[in-house]
Amino acid sequence: MTDVPVDSGASARAAAPEGLTPAEEEELRSELAKVEEEIGTLRQVLAAKERHCGELKRKLGLTPLDGLKQNLSKSWHDVQVSNAYVKTSEKLGEWNDKVTQSDLYLSASSTLEDWNEKLTQSEAYKKTQETLSQAGQKTSAALSNVGSVISRKLGDMRNSATFKSFEDRVGTIKSRMVGSRENSTDGLHSPSGAGDKPPQDNAPF
Q1: pTM of the full structure
Q2: How far is CA 64 from CA 53, 60, 67, in A?
Q3: Rounded Cα distance, 202 and 191, in Å
Q4: Looking at the predicted structure, is the pLDDT value of residue 37 above 70?
Q5: Do residues 187 and 194 make contact, with C-beta atoms less than 8 angstroms apart?
Q6: What is the rounded distance in angstroms from the CA atom of residue 129 to the CA atom of residue 169?
Q7: Please, where are the H alpha helices in the chain?
Q8: pLDDT in tens, 165-192
């Protein structure tokens, strides 16, 4: 099945409103063609202006994001100065004044204040505060006691016989190493030190 081309001119002429003479219809069609031609010309001019604007922004170092920010800022400013926004703000302000000054709002605020005062002055509230305070003090005291116990244990361990014996052994090893290094240095600088041997320390480890 092939598509049959439709003559748009014939369709337009067929759909022309009644009561127009052929001369009036022709005049209107001529004016429509001129308007469409002007629209096409304006579109071309607009495209050329947009390209020129883009080149100027590129030379100035302006990014598309900067342009978007400017457009948003301008749009928001236009909204704020618009009659609808101003009227809406005024109306919301009036509603807020009416609500905050109404008897229901004042009564609810007063009731909430009374409840808050009764709650903070109640025995349960005071006991809860005291319990939390005591818990905090006990926690601090427990941490302090743990630190004292650790310090005392370290002191006891340092004063123990095992730790002192370990310190003595470490001192003996250190003195042996220092003495051996000094004897080997003296043997290198002494002419007859090649055959001399340092006295052997037979002290038990």
Answers
A1: 0.29
A2: 12, 12, 5
A3: 27
A4: yes
A5: yes
A6: 58
A7: 8-14, 22-60, 64-81, 83-100, 103-120, 123-159, 161-189
A8: 777 778 788 777 777 666 666 555 555 5
